[in-house]
Structure to design on (1055 residues):
């Protein structure tokens, strides 16, 4: 009954989910309209920092269609938005963890901070009523610039008078300092990793419903991790039993990190749904997304690299100020520490590294993980300083990197990680060839004939993905585990439903995971369905971020599938009158080794559910298995990128002309999806380098880039055709699929390649530094500054 | 969005009457500027008077030595019009560079001019070609049409009906887009008609303006080199996140040189 077929793993299988997406039949949170639906709007602070003197809600309460209005005073029995990581300062004290109220209590701390929740019969009435709430503010000076926050005479929170949340460090400071003392050359660099606003296509949305019949809540929400949302909401915010809250994250239109977190709006809706007695829905307007989605990056950094006379890296010293924003978002403290400083070895054997991170509060939106989360910040500073060192020492930049590559694995870095495997030379060699680096001088000359300056830049990144082993995460301050859960349910007919605790919001789990399971059981792809995103269906989950879905979630599914096969073997042994050890599963059937006797996968499934002839004393009926997988280590994808830019020196306009990426993601299940992930990451990374930059007014704390009129997202015509290739590299050694993760690589590796290329193009003018985003204005100013004209 | 009434008049006279009778009503053309303002709560008109039902406001016609473009002609229609492409290709090129496909299919030349956004493209062409703006009651020369930030010579209830563009011998428009909005950070329209040179700049001031120094230099000789030694003062130019006044001042001669090169090509 079985047929041998080519494995699906490794095939560019078209995405199963795309049919519903391209035909407009996806189900997003805003598409869900419940019986007796009501709608919410939030009254938000127009000020960055102010005391709430008084609130007059009478007019709003009486406005047409209004059902309820709540302010911070109504929510005193409710906890604040919790933080999922605890970081300790160098002196051993825990980070300052101010309360993040669901609705502002006495103070507002950033523009957009929610003050009141209005519930009405329609979204329009809710919004109109919200505009009638009269708030008197005592406006306070705003702390805006992270670089000077600690010196400000204004405090965002009373418990952190100097606005310092923590001062943390990793690495051996004394050894690092000693290495600097005997260095032949020291390269220095100050930089800013520009603040970004995520802008998922689908804005945040929630629809909360309380059922008196079952005394339980249901929350539909744009979340990357519904179980974590449920845990935090039930246990830490609302104090309701976890089993009385169901969280559903249906189709979600992109997240990039911004939908990992528990947000105040969602908690407010769940809380109010019981009081109002009707379901309440809220969908952020784009302007609200700009103001209140957790932003990304925002580091102010100085770095120094010590080298010996041969260009070997002796030590790296980094000092970073990380902006936390007004409140600690769910993962915020771990981003500039655990996900940033521990990556500073990069691909290099630098023996001594010390990094100090000072996290500060400011009157700006909270800052948390955004595609890459900490690792882009690490890669940017490292690959910038390496390239600057190469320039200073007149060594070819790829050559300098080559001299310092890690070549022996496993490799323990001086900042706490152990790389299991890698081959950095392989990706570098390949990318230099693919990018036709040899042809660069000719292309440069050709550009010059058109009055343009061409430059080439490199970047060799590493990332820690598959986040993470729970024990390591716990030691580093995580307040949760970081395993993943999966369930494989074989139905009586041999069809399969797989439940995963990871969540797809664009990543294509429904296809990739189905390929894995279909291969496991020798089934056609159509026989496997992937379910995710509903706490009532999926046993548990830690969600999707940090390129962990396949490496951790996929591994859990593989473990559960192995249990299915093990049980199947025992059922088959009974039916085929053989001993358990004599049964093997091969080519879609359970076979008695060395004979032609076999039972198909479907026959065994049926036998499990119709156990007429069944080893009922030894084996339970049914064919359904769970597994939890906690990885022994992170995975370490790595790669090399080459960027070529053209700059118009008269206007400062820059264009990425060629971008070549060569990545080692270990084994690849669906190369088309992987390529798509790299494309998206590159678009965001190039966006960060050239286009995107969140700006607040330094005085008032008003968001200056509060819409797409001023915040530049990359568009298709801002990008070249990418040349993207994954090498058949070094499979991860410690997960059953040998996969490493690919979701963030593009965003991590590309920004330094772009800036390095720009600096190469501008080197003839004497420009040594450029801030991101390198807009035409900034490039022109950089040229003018060294020309000394201005 | 607020509640408001909607009218769709079937003659210019009826539209004019509706506008006169309700001082809080707003004319509606393509809606590409007014609807966003409405949604952002910047505007709360009592009614819309939709000009979409007036075919006489739509279309491109060659009339002797000028091109008449109806107020309700969309950017896409101008961009694709064989007459415009033949006689003033620079204008077709300008229209093709406005916003995106959706905006070009809805937005109109009349709406753009009446709105007089400081970074809009059309004002540069109207000024740079010395066009004449026609309304339901008079003709306004380009040089006295643009009055300031979102301000024109149009009366409150005056309806822009068409624009008459004289045909230039040579013309070109070069736009340097603001990276996010892709409106003009600076846009320069140059034209040469007989001995007359016009250089009109958008994006750099409160509304489009001409630059006499550049025009005079080009009138001597219509060539990019004529501008080599000319610098623009930065005072009174726009400054924002995307461009300082100095940067805009720098771009004006750079883009003018490029426009002249294109016009000569
Ligand atoms: C995403 C986006 C990108 C854009 N990019 C650009 C760009 O790159 N360059 C650019 O120049 N523009 C751009 N625009 C603006 C666009 O060109 C608009 O279409 C134009 O500014 C307004 O034209 P409209 O027909 O849409 O007018 P509406 O929005 O309908 O009206 C605008 C104003 O003009 C008044 N009005 C309209 N018609 C008349 C009339 N006949 N007589 C008197 N008053 C009238 C209205 O009452 C209103 O006050 C963009 C718009 C959007 C939404």
């Amino acid at each position: 009954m079985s047929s041998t077929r080519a494995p699906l793993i490794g095939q560019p299988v078209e995405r199963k989910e795309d049919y519903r997406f391209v035909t407009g039949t996806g189900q997003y949170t805003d598409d869900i309209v419940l019986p007796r639906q009501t709608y919410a709007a939030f009254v938000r602070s127009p000020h960055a920092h102010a005391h709430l003197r008084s609130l007059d809600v009478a007019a709003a309460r009486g406005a047409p269609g209004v059902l309820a209005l709540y302010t911070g005073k109504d929510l005193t029995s409710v906890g604040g938005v919790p933080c999922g990581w605890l970081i300790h300062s160098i002196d051993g004290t825990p980070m300052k963890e101010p309360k993040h109220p669901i609705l502002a209590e006495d103070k507002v701390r950033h523009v957009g901070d929610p003050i009141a929740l209005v519930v009405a019969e329609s979204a329009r009435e809710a919004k109109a009523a919200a505009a009638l709430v009269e708030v008197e503010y005592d406006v306070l000076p705003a702390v805006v610039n992270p670089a000077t926050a600690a010196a400000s005479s204004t405090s965002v929170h009373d418990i952190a008078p100097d606005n310092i949340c923590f001062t943390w460090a990793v690495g051996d400071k004394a050894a690092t300092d000693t290495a600097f003392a005997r260095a032949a050359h020291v390269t220095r660099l100050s930089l800013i990793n520009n603040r970004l606003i995520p802008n998922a296509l689908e804005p945040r949305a929630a629809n909360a419903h309380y059922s008196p019949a079952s005394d339980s809540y249901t929350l539909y929400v744009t979340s990357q991790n519904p179980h974590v949302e449920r845990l935090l909401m039930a246990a830490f915010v609302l104090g309701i039993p976890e089993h009385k809250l169901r969280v559903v994250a249906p189709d979600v239109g992109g997240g990039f990190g911004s939908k990992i977190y528990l947000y105040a709006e969602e908690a407010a809706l769940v809380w109010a749904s019981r009081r109002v007695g009707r379901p309440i829905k809220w969908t952020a307007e784009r302007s609200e997304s700009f103001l209140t989605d957790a932003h990304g990056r925002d580091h102010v950094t100085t770095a120094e690299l010590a080298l010996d006379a041969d260009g070997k890296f002796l030590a790296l010293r980094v000092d970073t100020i990380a902006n936390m924003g007004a409140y600690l978002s769910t993962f915020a403290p771990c981003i500039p520490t655990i996900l940033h400083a521990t990556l500073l070895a990069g691909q290099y054997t630098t023996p001594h590294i010390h990094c100090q991170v000072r996290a500060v509060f400011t009157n700006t939106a909270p800052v948390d993980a955004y595609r890459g989360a900490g690792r882009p910040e690490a890669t940017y500073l490292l690959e910038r300083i390496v390239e600057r060192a190469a320039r200073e020492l007149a060594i070819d930049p790829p050559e300098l990197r080559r001299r310092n590559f890690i070549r022996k694995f496993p490799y323990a870095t001086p900042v706490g990680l152990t790389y299991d495997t890698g081959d950095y030379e392989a990706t570098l060699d390949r990318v230099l060839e693919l990018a036709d680096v040899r042809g660069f001088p000719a292309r440069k000359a050709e550009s010059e004939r058109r009055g343009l300056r061409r430059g080439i830049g490199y970047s060799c990144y590493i990332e820690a993905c598959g986040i993470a082993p729970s024990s390591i995460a716990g030691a580093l301050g995580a307040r949760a585990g970081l395993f993943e859960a999966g369930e494989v349910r074989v139905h009586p007919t041999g069809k399969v439903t797989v439940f995963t605790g990871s969540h797809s919001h664009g990543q294509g789990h429904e296809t990739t995971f189905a390929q894995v399971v279909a291969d496991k059981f020798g089934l056609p792809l159509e026989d496997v369905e992937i379910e995710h995103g509903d706490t009532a269906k999926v046993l548990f989950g830690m969600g999707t971020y940090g390129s962990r879905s396949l490496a951790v979630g996929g591994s859990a599914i593989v473990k559960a599938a192995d249990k299915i096969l093990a049980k199947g073997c025992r059922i088959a042994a009974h039916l085929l009158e053989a001993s358990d050890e004599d049964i093997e599963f091969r080519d879609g059937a359970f076979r008695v080794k060395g004979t032609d006797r076999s039972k198909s996968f479907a026959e065994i499934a049926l036998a499990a559910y119709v156990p007429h002839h069944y080893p009922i004393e030894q084996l339970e009926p049914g064919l359904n298995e769970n597994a939890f997988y906690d990885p022994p280590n992170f995975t370490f994808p790595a790669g090399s990128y080459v960027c070529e830019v053209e700059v118009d020196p008269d206007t400062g306009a820059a264009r990425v002309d060629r971008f070549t990426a060569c990545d080692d993601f270990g084994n690849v299940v669906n190369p088309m999806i992987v390529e798509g992930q790299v494309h998206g990451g590159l678009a965001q990374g190039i966006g960060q380098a050239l286009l995107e930059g969140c700006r607040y007014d330094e005085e008032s704390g008003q968001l200056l880039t509060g819409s797409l009129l001023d915040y530049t997202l990359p568009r298709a015509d801002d990008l070249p055709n990418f040349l993207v290739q994954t090498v058949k590299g070094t499979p991860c050694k410690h997960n059953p699929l040998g996969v490493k993760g690919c979701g963030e690589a593009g965003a991590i590796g590309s920004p330094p390649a772009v800036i390095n290329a720009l600096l190469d193009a501008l080197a003839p003018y004497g420009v040594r530094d450029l801030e991101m985003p390198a807009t035409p204005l900034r490039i022109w100013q950089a040229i003018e500054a060294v020309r000394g004209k201005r | 969005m607020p509640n408001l009434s909607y009218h769709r008049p079937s003659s210019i006279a009826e539209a004019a009457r509706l506008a006169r009778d309700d001082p809080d009503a707003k004319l509606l053309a393509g809606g590409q500027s007014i609807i966003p303002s409405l949604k952002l709560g910047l505007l709360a008109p009592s009614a819309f008077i939709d000009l979409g039902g007036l075919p006489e406001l739509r279309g491109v016609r060659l009339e002797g030595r000028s091109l008449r473009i109806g107020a309700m002609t969309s950017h896409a229609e101008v961009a694709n019009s064989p007459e415009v492409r033949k006689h003033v290709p620079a204008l077709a090129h300008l229209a093709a560079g406005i916003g995106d496909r959706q905006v070009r299919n809805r937005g109109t030349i009349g709406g753009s001019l009446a709105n007089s956004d400081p970074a809009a493209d059309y004002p540069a062409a109207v000024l740079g070609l010395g066009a004449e703006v026609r309304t339901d009651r008079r003709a306004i020369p380009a040089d006295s049409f643009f009055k300031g930030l979102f301000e024109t010579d149009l009366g409150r209830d005056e309806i822009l009906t068409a624009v008459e563009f004289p045909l230039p011998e040579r013309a070109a428009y070069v736009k340097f887009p603001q990276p996010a909005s892709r409106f003009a950070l600076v846009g320069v329209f140059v034209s040469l008609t007989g001995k007359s040179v016009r250089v009109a700049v958008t994006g750099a001031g409160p509304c489009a303006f001409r630059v006499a120094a550049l025009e005079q230099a080009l009138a001597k000789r219509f060539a990019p080199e004529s501008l080599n030694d000319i610098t623009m003062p930065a005072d009174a130019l726009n400054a924002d996140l995307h461009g300082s006044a100095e940067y805009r001042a720098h771009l004006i001669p750079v883009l003018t040189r490029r426009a002249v090169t294109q016009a000569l090509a």
